[in-house]
# Entry
Amino acid sequence: MSLLELNDVKVHFPIKRGVFFDRTVGHVYAVDGISLKVEAGETYGLVGESGCGKTTLGRAVLRLVDITSGEVVLDGTDLASLPDKEMRSMRRRLQMVFQDPLGSLNPRQNIESILSEGMAAHGIGANQEERREKIRAILAKVGLPSNALSRYPHEFSGGQRQRIGIARALVLEPDVIICDEPVSALDVSIQAQVVNLLDELQEELGLTYVVIAHDLAVVRHISDVIGVMYLGSLVEEAPSDSLYAEPKHPYTKALMSAVPIPDPVVEEARERILLTGDLPSPANPPSGCRFHTRCPWAQPKCKEERPQLREVGDGHRVACHFVEDIESGVLQIGTDRAAVVPAARTEDAGIEAAAAKAAEAAEAAEDKAVEEKSASVEATDSEAAETDSTESAKDSTAQGA
Amino acid sequence: MTTSTKAAKIERLAELTAQNETSSGASLWREAFRRLKTSKMAIIGGVVIAAFIVMAVVGPWVAPHSPKALTWKDEVFLNRGEFVGPRGENWFGLDHLGRDMFSRFLVGARQTLLVGVVSMLIGLIIGAVIGVVSGAAATLGGAAGRRVDTVVMRITDIMLALPSLLLAASIAAVMGQSLTTVMIAVGVVQIPIFARLLRGSMLAQGSKDYVLAAKSLGIRKRRIVVTQILPNSLSPVIVQATLSLATAIIEAAALSYLGLGNPDPSVPEWGVMLSQAQRFFDNAPMMAVYPAVGIIITALGFTLLGEAMREALDPKLRG
Ligand SMILES: Nc1ncnc2c1ncn2[C@@H]1O[C@H](COP(=O)(O)OP(=O)(O)OP(=O)(O)O)[C@@H](O)[C@H]1O
Ligand code: SF4
Ligand SMILES: [Mg+2]
# Structure
């Protein structure tokens, strides 16, 4: 059994409006049905564009946001349905490192107080003296001087603050640490140090990580398995190397093709897949495959039916109706599968038949162009609707504030 | 090596070691205080306030004459319409009943300070309690908490929408004339201000990552409010408390001036003195000037200190 298992986790934020009592006018589908497994001692990397719901998923695992439905199973216990009191004691086993090192440290607490508060809450250490001893040991482990204890967060550099954040997670001796973009707020020169520190700690303490990042470069070297998120759902999951060697989902391919390759020859030959259009709003996600509005291979079926994540070999799990066809090259960018597939099946047909097929295909392509036009009109419509709903989402947060 | 460069080197070394010693952690409060001490505004405000407080405390004892007794009434009644101005015996002159104005001014400071502080405290304490409840409910209370917060905030909105002087006057009208009435009336007006301010500040802090971090550590909600959210939400409230001492003094004076204050006109209070002076403004403008200037300078002192504190506590200016 895996250490951490998510089963169809959904987090939908209600969009509220109203003068006196708030009325729910819609939802932000921030996380919309994610299932994954994290093995003990491994690192699971989670990547995706900004706004795709990575942070929300991380917080859902820790139950820092309300889980709309689904299960978060840690070592056999479903956290989503756990009563508050038991959840509090489970928190010890599941910790988080935040994206913004300064923002995640209380500016009015000194380091000792920040690090010992969690220990006190879980009854670690009989008294403050014992806790201080332990904190000293952990500070040394994360590379901070022990005179840091009496100092305040604003007196440290960004990298040091993130080390404090890591130490705060470590003092509770957790099994799993969720690192939400742990280095994206740091200087590039310091990023590597912190990533290395995480790596060393994992080796030494046998930690299990979920590392969230918006670019693949950060997670590549430390992840065993990588999951790619798009608009609240997982589109592809594969062992790290395999994902890099052979991305299968169109979205992953596009992400990879955006990363320049140092070798000029390979770089020249590299297939670049440009994503058209903007990321749709999670308040108004596209029907069917969430990616169909931007997918170069999209077919009519993609609009209607939502593809499930399924095994496609090589340890890949992919949510796409047409991975095999794209893989085999049967389906080319911009073609209509209905036109292509029968032609491929009747290889021995005469030239006339082939010509007829070609004509048909051309016709179909024309049809598709028309369709595309209307689709783009639709897209603008729905875009307008999206701006509305994001505005209302902003409203509701503004009201909240 | 010349002695002067040697001396410079030693000094430099001393500087460096001194820096090392002070690296033992400076809390934000302490840093804010350090900034406050170097602010000119704070110093001027502080001096004015200190003078005012000293006057309020020792005034009744050092006043050269009785503030109530009509010691020089014959003199004043003889010169109807001609007021006795400042003279050796009476530094501020006499009022219309032949009382020593300087003594009345000194003793009146205590009443004014009392009204200001008590009404500010009424507003601060009740407002802060409402604000904490609302803020805590909104940040950590889930859906039910947010509903509580909405209701409480709508009530404070209604309170805020009423003109403060009108609200105070109605309270005074209901409760009758007295100094207590003035203090309550002025204090009540401040309640929604403090409540909104603290609640808003708590809400802003409540969505910060360090609160999430505390939650993820498994710390109890009540403790999160007390150790995480509240300490970080207090700065604007402290500033407002200082500023509102100024408004409270002015509003209390206004209510006294309107005749809603202490019904016994012989008890000196700056607002009362101002309202008494009104009738004689043509003949004896100085009678109004003393209490008016007292009120203005004191209010200014509190405002200066409040603004200086706002700057000192602003984390963006940390350095
Ligand atoms: N508390 C909330 N209420 C309403 N909507 C929210 C809330 N938190 C997040 N969202 C929305 O959910 C979506 C996913 O947000 P999330 O922060 O999880 O994305 P992310 O992948 O972490 O992005 P980033 O790379 O910018 O950190 C966004 O559209 C965001 O606006
Ligand atoms: S299901 Fe269709 S739209 Fe979605 S990724 Fe696959 S081909 Fe593209
Ligand atoms: Mg994020």
Summary: The pocket of iron/sulfur cluster (ligand 2) is lined by residues A 250, 289, 291-292, 295, 297-299, 302, 307, 320-322 (CB under 6 Å). Residues 4-223 of chain A form a domain with the Rossmann fold fold (CATH 3.40.50.300).
